[in-house]
Amino acid sequence: MAVLNFKVVIGLGILYGVIWSLVDQLAQLAFPYCDHPKKCFNYAEELAASVDTRINPCDNMYEHVCGKWDRLHPFPIPGAGGQFRVLQYRILSFLFSKLEQSPPNHPVLAVRRSVSAFQTCMDVYDEGREDTKVSWYS
């Protein structure tokens, strides 16, 4: 049992490492019009757009600075928005869309296995099964 748990931990660690290393590459694909995805978001412009000039900053500094944020960036969970959260969901959405496509002809075996493992897990979940029948040695 301990060997199986060790293998699962190692497998999850490899999967995490591969996904972590691909985030920058996938972000470049998701935002091709940018030199770097972090530069896609002009923080000064975003914050300037969220300023509500109708509110006196001496009365309510938070509402003055962030008053328009919720209207400009609607979010399904009230009060859970934020620039980093928006960026996180954009990148995760793109990452999952890439992982759901057919396994790439990637030269790194770990990438091919990670994509295949993710797709197998999604199939098992979609079908409501409790087994995976994953072959880690193929």
From TrEMBL:
UniProt cross-references to Gene3D superfamilies, sorted A to Z: Collagenase (Catalytic Domain) (3.40.390.10), Neutral endopeptidase , domain2 (1.10.1380.10)
PROSITE patterns: NEPRILYSIN
GO biological process, one term: proteolysis
GO molecular function, a single term: metalloendopeptidase activity
InterPro entries for the chain: MetalloPept_cat_dom_sf (IPR024079), Peptidase_M13 (IPR000718), Peptidase_M13_dom_2 (IPR042089)
Coiled coil (UniProt feature): none
Protein name: Peptidase M13 N-terminal domain-containing protein
